[in-house]
Amino acid sequence: MAQLFKCFSFSLLFFSVAAAADLPKPVVQALRAAGIPQSSVGAVVQEVGAPRPSLAVNAREPLNPASVMKLVTTYAALELLGPAYRWKTEVYLDGDNLILKGYGDPKLNYESFWMLLRSLRGRGMREIRGDIVLDRSYFGPGTDERIDDETFRPYNVTPDALLVNFKSLRFTFLPEAERGAVRVFAEPALPGLEIVNSLKIGEGGCPEGRAFRDLIEAAFQAKPPRAAFTGLYPAACGERDLNVALYSPEDYVAAMIRQLWSEMGGSWNGTVREGVVPPTARLVYVHESEALGEVVRGINKYSNNVMARQLFLTLGAESVGPPAQTENAARAVRQWLALKNIAAPELVLENGSGLSRAERISAANLAALLQAAWKSPVMPEFVSSLPVVATDGTMKKRLRGERIAGYAHIKSGLLSEARAIAGYVLDRNGKRHTVVMIVNHPRAPEADAAIDALLAWVYASRLQSQLAP
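Given the sequence above, the corresponding C-alpha cells read:
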C-alpha cells in the first residue's frame, strides 16, 4: 500500500509540474486564432506502456468531455459484462393478452423488432385477441432527463427498458429536378402518420444540422403524428435524411406492431398499455440482442447517446439488481475504476453518455483509462469501436488527405461549449500513443483545428522538438 501511495504521489507531482508546459506550437497557434486560452484546455499524450506522459497540460483539471465520456461507459461495460453479453426481450401470453418485457436492449431496432415478431408468427401465432402490455419495469423512474428543449431530436430520446427502434422515424428527401419538387417518405411508414410536403427545389449550397431543418421549415407534432416541410430544398443537397423522434414510446410500439404484424398476415385490434408480467403469464419466446462487442461499435463509432445511456443503466441493474438507477450505475463504474487503480475524485457521471452539462473527468484519467484498456483482454473490441480518422464514424470527415488518415482511432465529443478527443495514434515511426485533448470554452466549437493539429503533431512524432517556447 505504501508503495502504491508513493507511485500515486509521484504521478500527482509529475502532472503538477507538467501542467506548466505549453502545448505544441501548431496547437497554440490554432487556439489563438480561435480566441481560446490555454487555460481552457486539458491535454495528455503518452506512448502506450510508457511510465509517464510525453505531454501533460492542465492534466488534472476536471473538464466536461462531452461524448468522450462514452469511453468510460463502454470500456467498463466490456470488462464488467463481457463482450459476449446480450440483452433479452421476453414475450409472454396471459390469457388473450400479449406481454413484452424489456431489459434495456440498446439496439432493438427496426430489423431486430421485425425478427422478434416474425419468430412469433413462426411459432404459429396469428391472432392477438387481447391487448399488448409493455413491461418497462427493469428501468427505474428518474431516467428521462433531456439536455435541452428539442423534444423531437433523436439525441433527446430518453432511456427505456423496451426501446423499439429508438422510437424514431427517418424522413428521406429525394429531389426530382424534372418536376421541380421533392419526394418525401418516412421509414418506417407507420399508420396514421401525416406528411405535408410543400417543398420546392431551390438554389444555393446545402447547409448542415439545424440550418438544414430551418431551411426546409420542418415542423412536427406528436398527436396526431404529423410532419410538415414547406421551405426550399437546394438541389445541391441531393438525397438527404432527417431522423425525428415524433411518437411517445407507447404510440410508437403500437404503430410498429400494427404495421409489421399485418404485413406478416397477422391480426390484432386491441390497444397497447403499460403493465408488468403477472405470475399467471406463460413465457413463449425470448429474443436476444447483438453481443455487447458489436453494440459498443454503434455507441462509439457514431456517438449514439441513447444506446450509451441504455448501457449505463444496464451496468446499474447488473451490479445491484433492477430497477436500474443512474446512481447505481455510477457507483459500479467508480468501484471498477478503483479496482484498476485509477483514482478519479473529479469524476462526475450523470448518464454515462456525455450528453450532459454536469459530467466531468480529467485528461489525465482519460489517458490512464486508455493505457489500461490497451492492456485489457477486451482491448480488440474496445479499440475497434473507435472511429478511424478520415475513414468512418464521427471522424470520417476529419483530417482527410493528411498523413495521419487511417493511423488513429479517435473518439470525438462536442457540446455547445465543449470539444474533446481521446484515443490512440500510431505515429510515423510505428509507436502508438494515447492522446487526450479537452476544450471547455464558449468558443469551443472553433477548436477543431487545434485538436486536429495535436493529432497531426503526434503522428509526426515531434514529441520533444516542437513545443512552444
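The radius of gyration is 24 Å. Try to locate this feature in the C-alpha cell string yourself.
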